[in-house]
Design a protein that fits this description.
5-stranded parallel beta sheet, Rossmann fold, alpha/beta, 15 strands
């Protein structure tokens, strides 16, 4: 399997390990596999008897090829997907809620967010690859909430890696902020930025575009712009599907809370491989850029609204470039023109592709208000005795509102409710119980660095701390 950049008309190819450590392509594009491997229904039937590690191994091998020895890959997966890390041997288990709606638990890892499903593997495989090369890596990332703690949990204490995470000063829950700030390992640097997540994300891209600096500090990425993150997330769509359908080949819908478009992109990749997902339903909050796009074909950046589901408070979804690449026929020149227009005008009209997006690729969408998420939390607790967080509630609200009874619907649980106590208390009248390890979290010592929101200041900070 080879990889190429979405913006490279010359189609230079890379192997998986290079893509993993590079993160963002030198031309500013995102890496994509040359093709999506095909999974037949017979092979999918075989997958039903696989453990999560075996399933991950089968799917990863299709995307990695001989770049990493099969025995080494197997060892890395066994090291990653453990009961100790994720709370159960099942890994990403599925439970039935009501009315044909199911919930997949993706947030029982160390940071209580779905990001752990990929980030724990990324930490292990990056450490392995750096060891093979006798190299070091400087990771620069951005987060609106959960990515920061998931990344830092995955890379804390890893001697070959320093990790710098940019987060907005306002918008994260007190739990999320304390969770990140209390990780005090010497290779962890939390940088607070004035402005929303989009500012943090733009700074990461701007700094990556400085190729001399990138080479000088060996800069990599762990946001979902890194293909390794997307690949690891593909696996749980296969697990979820096989846990829900009565017969392999039956159709199923998925509803995914979405901000940066990485999670649902992994569902799109799984569908492109042949997994019988009928609809990929993108759930948004009051930040409706993605909902507007999937309804109209017009992708338009807007001001960010701070909401009770902060990880979705994004107005510019990095990963959507990979979808644009596919819908324009993987024509890098066309893609560069699309992205240049967007950077200049903050809006692009792809309505000519809307029929394909909706009817051939299967994308749909919906939005939720704070009040609707509160009602979804109340309803699921009343009927199912299950507490869901406000991001998951965005998906459940849309599943309840849009479901077609002939098809089961799988909602992705993307975070644990303990991370959003104020919202849960508003909905249910009580604070949800915390896992033992997080009791008294906000009282722990925290460390953040205030750095001016410009690339030069951040680059200077990075250089002085590696």
């Amino acid at each position: 399997m080879q990889y190429l950049s979405t913006r490279d008309s010359k189609k230079n190819f890379f192997v998986f390990s290079n893509v993993l450590l590079e993160g963002l392509a030198e031309d500013g594009g995102l890496f994509c596999p040359e093709i999506y491997p095909s999974v037949t229904l017979d092979r999918l039937q075989d997958f039903k008897r696989y453990s999560y590690v075996e399933l991950a191994n089968a799917i990863f091998t299709d995307f990695i090829g001989e770049d990493i020895p099969e025995s080494d890959l197997g060892d890395l997966l066994k090291k990653t997907y453990t009961k100790e890390a994720f709370g159960t041997e099942a890994i990403a288990p599925v439970e039935y809620l009501k009315d044909g709606i199911y919930l997949q638990d993706l947030s029982s890892g160390p940071s209580l967010a779905f990001k752990d499903m990929a980030m724990q593997f990324l930490g292990n495989i990056m450490e392995y690859e750096l060891g093979r090369r006798s190299e070091r890596l400087t990771i620069l990332g951005a987060s609106s909430g959960d990515t920061v703690s998931a990344a830092e949990e995955a890379f804390r204490g890893k001697e070959a890696v320093n990790i710098f995470m940019l987060t907005p000063k306002e918008g994260m829950s007190s739990f999320q902020k304390a969770q990140a700030g209390s990780i005090l390992d010497t290779n962890i640097f939390n940088i607070s930025i004035d402005g929303p997540f989009d500012v943090c994300q733009d700074l990461v891209k701007e700094i990556n575009a400085d190729l001399e600096f990138k080479k000088d500090v060996s800069l990599g990425a762990v946001n979902s712009i890194n293909w390794g993150r997307i690949l690891a997330q593909v696996v749980y769509y296969f697990k979820g599907y096989l846990s829900v359908v009565d017969s392999v080949g039956d159709a199923m819908d998925v509803v995914v809370p979405s901000g940066n478009f990485g999670n649902v992109l992994a569902g799109y990749v799984a569908k492109s491989m042949g997994l019988p997902l009928r609809k990929l339903i993108v759930a948004t909050n009051e930040n409706v850029v993605l909902d507007h796009f999937f309804k109209t074909g017009i992708y338009e950046q807007r001001d960010v609204v701070v909401t009770s589901s902060p990880s979705m408070d994004i107005s510019k979804a990095s990963n959507i470039e990979r979808l644009f690449f596919d819908i324009c026929g993987r024509d890098a020149k066309s893609l560069r023109q699309i992205m240049a227009t967007f950077e200049k005008t903050k809006s692009i009209d792809l309505s000519g592709y809307l029929y394909e997006i909706q009817n051939q690729l299967g994308f749909s969408s919906g939005r939720s208000s704070h009040e609707q998420r509160i009602e979804a939390i109340k309803e699921i607790y009343k009927d199912c005795k299950r507490i869901i967080d406000p991001h998951t509630a965005a998906a459940v609200h849309i599943a309840l509102d849009q479901q077609e009874k002939a098809f089961p619907v799988l909602c992705m649980e993307t975070a644990k409710p303990a991370k959003f106590e104020d919202t849960i208390k508003e909905a249910l009248g009580f604070i949800p119980p915390r896992p033992q390890a997080f009791i008294g979290l906000e009282e722990k010592k925290q460390r953040f660095y205030d750095v001016e929101a410009n690339a030069s200041s951040i680059k200077e900070f990075i250089k002085s701390h590696i």
